[in-house]
Specification:
The chain is mostly helical. It has helices at 13-31, 56-59, 62-80, 88-102, 123-138, 143-156, and strands spanning 35-39, 45-49. A two-stranded antiparallel ribbon has the order 1-2. Strand 1 and strand 2 form a beta hairpin. Helix 3 (62-80) runs parallel beside helix 5 and helix 4 (88-102) packs parallel to helix 6 (143-156). The chain is elongated. The termini are far apart. The relative contact order is 0.10.
Length: 164
């Protein structure tokens, strides 16, 4: 039977040196945290906080998402897709492709779960979807044309085709 090493809590010199090196590296990282070297128009360098350059305000805008989705995409589709029970399946095909694009490839599975919400997607994707829907309306396109456009877009983006 192999002899088990006892954990005495004491560290060897090598372990202490590795731990000290880790702490030194981590401390060095904190020294430069949040700053970025930039070149001024005069050719000099200066350090600026990185957060200034992130453009955080442009990343998320819940009001813009709401407007794009509900006042734009959804309103136009509801107004322009055929109404009635006899067209429900056709509308569902369109909505599936729309939501797959807006969730970046999350399709409804066999249990009816998508795993994503198109209303919470990226603003750039919602803008692109709105443009597609507006083009379809302005060209007086058919349901088949809209479906093909959305399906081809999803295929091109690598989101695949529906399993239905």
């Amino acid at each position: 039977m192999a002899k088990q090493e006892k954990n005495t809590g004491k560290k060897s010199k090598a372990e202490l040196a590795r731990e000290e090196e880790k702490l030194r590296i981590l401390a060095k990282t904190d020294e430069t945290k949040g700053e970025q070297l930039v070149f001024t128009p005069e050719g000099k360098t200066s350090a600026e906080p990185e957060i200034k350059n992130l453009g955080i305000q442009g990343i998320e805008n819940p009001e813009q998402k709401f407007d794009l989705y509900y006042k734009g995409i959804q309103r136009l589709l509801i107004a322009n897709l055929p109404k009635g029970k006899q067209h429900k399946k056709s509308r569902d095909y369109i909505y599936e492709e729309k939501n797959t694009f807006l969730t970046r490839g999350k399709r409804i599975n066999e249990k009816g779960i998508r795993g994503g919400d198109g209303r919470m997607g990226y603003i750039s994707d919602a803008e692109e979807m709105l443009e597609i829907v507006m083009d379809w309306i302005m060209q007086n396109g058919s349901m088949v044309e809209l479906y093909n456009t959305l399906r081809d877009l999803n295929v091109r983006m690598g989101y695949g085709t529906p399993r239905l």
